[in-house]
Design goal:
Layout (H helix, E strand, L loop, with lengths): L1 H6 L3 E8 L8 E13 H11 L6 E2 L6 E11 L4 H6 L4 E5 L14 E4 L2 H5 L2 H12 L22
Parallel strand pairs: 4-5, 5-6
Antiparallel strand pairs: 1-2, 2-4, 3-6
Length: 155
Amino acid sequence: SGRMADKLNLQHRQILQPEGDPMAGNGFGIIGELQQPVESITFLQQVKEIFRCDRLRYTAPHTPSIQRVAVCGGAGASFFKQALTGRADIYISGDFKYHDFFLTENRIMIADIGHYESEQFTKEIFYEILTKKYLNLRFSFLRLIQIRLSTYNIW
């Protein structure tokens, strides 16, 4: 989630769902603000580019512009209420179910960018940790095949 917030340049960040010692800063998701409001559809286009999404699912914008953004990598639908009570304009995560989109009730926008797309930058974090710890070793990324799900109409 932190890397998602980095990619979106979120400011004034807080943990969406704190866990354990509050002073440790551990938990799930991030909520923060864009430097300036961005028109809702323009922001969705930026999200699609930043996270390299083939497509994304989203609810209709409830406000003309986005400024307060909540994110959670992976399957973050269970933290929807925290994004809502945190007054986010949009909640970006992956793996929302069909009925989750009805929970918005024109109070917040949901953008489902996909599970992989929301976690793809995690490898950067591992790379940074390993290169700092093992100075004499060289690391590189391997390109692995990403699972692409397709639908096929058999009728």
